[in-house]
From TrEMBL:
Organism, as annotated: Boseongicola aestuarii
Superkingdom, natural source: Bacteria
A Pfam family assignment: DUF1059
Name of this chain's protein: DUF1059 domain-containing protein
InterPro entries (UniProt xref): DUF1059
Length: 64
């Protein structure tokens, strides 16, 4: 069985009502999908996320 990773937007502070979830084989893939979700669903610019934000978001990526 291969390992996978997930991120649920609702786990992020302030996003409790968002149903967005992503799963992928690697954490790098999850990051790309998280960033795409942030752009499409929330109108955010992931390039503006500072290191503290990225560290926090990284804690929300979980092994599946």
């Amino acid at each position: 069985m291969s390992k996978a990773y997930t991120y649920a937007c609702r786990d992020c502070e302030g996003m409790e009502d968002c149903p967005g979830e992503v799963s992928a084989a690697t954490q790098d893939e999850v990051w790309k999908l998280m960033e795409l979700h942030a752009v499409i669903a929330h109108g955010e610019d992931p390039s503006s996320w500072d290191n503290e934000t990225r560290e926090y978001l990284g804690t929300l990526i979980k092994p599946k």
